[in-house]
Amino acid sequence: MIKVHHLNDSRSQRVLWFLEELGVDYEIVPYRRNATTRLAPPELKAVHPLGKSPVIQNGALVVAESGAILEYLARTYGKGRFIPPEGSADFISHLHWMHFAEGSAMLPLMLGLYVGRLGEAGAPLHPRIDSEIANHLGYMETALATSDYFIGHSIMAVDFQITFVLEAAKSGRRLDPYPRLLAYLERMHARPAYQRAVERGGPYTLGR
């Protein structure tokens, strides 16, 4: 059975959700953030050298990084769902959005969080950070102009990847100017598998 090393209020929530959508049995190994630093506990380093979550174990196999985990699960258990056919235009688009979510969109949101803790010392950086966030959110808003999902009209692995980014944006009160992204997030949160994942994973307040 798959073990998910699950940290509260983290990217590992997207892994629980995907496993629920796949209908794959899994076990949760829970961890709690430090209440002061919000960092993961040191026990996670015994699972993977980075000491971060999510990490999954499937027998002797250990997989870290949520994007890699989603790809592995989709290819292993998806039965042709959740990833477009290789070689298709949708496959290339899916690859783009999977990497965009963490490689581009998440970075300025994290910078905004950390720089915000500097108070006035971080003030000179906010205009650049804010412009990058707006650029990425506007790009995603446009992508949903003609479909309910980021790849056509059915949910794909990338939707599990991107939802966390939008939750992070919403938690920072960044989503109000983007009605399509807000509606998309509501659709994702309404999915029964998402709700089951929150119930199993414990309280999850990010972006809600």
Description of the structure:
The structure is a single chain. This protein has seven helices and four strands, in the order E-H-E-E-E-H-H-H-H-H-H. It is α+β, with helices and mostly antiparallel strands. It folds into two domains: 2-82 and 193-201, Glutaredoxin, CATH 3.40.30.10; 89-191, Up-down Bundle (Glutathione S-transferase Yfyf (Class Pi), Chain A, domain 2). Strands 2-1-3-4 form a four-stranded mixed sheet, covered by helices on one side. Helix 1 links the parallel strand 1 and strand 2 (26-31). Helix 3 packs antiparallel against helix 4 (126-143) and helix 5 packs across helix 6. The longest helix has 28 residues, at 89-116.
Q: How would you summarize what this structure contains?
A:
The protein is of the alpha+beta class and 208 residues long. It has helices at residues 12-22, 66-77, 89-116, 126-143, 157-171, 179-190, 192-201, and strands spanning 2-7, 26-31, 55-58, 61-64. β1, α1 and β2 form a beta-alpha-beta unit.
> Termini separation (Å)?
30 Å
Helix content, binned percent: 40-55%
Integer count of domains: 2
Strand order, main sheet: write it out. 2-1-3-4
Work out the helix count. Answer: 7
3D shape: globular
Element string (H = helix, E = strand): EHEEEHHHHHH
Report the portion of residues in β strands.
Answer: 5-15%
CATH C-level class of the largest domain is: Mainly Alpha
Question: Architecture of the largest domain, according to CATH?
Answer: Up-down Bundle
What is the CATH topology descriptor of the largest domain?
Glutathione S-transferase Yfyf (Class Pi), Chain A, domain 2
CA radius of gyration is 17 Å
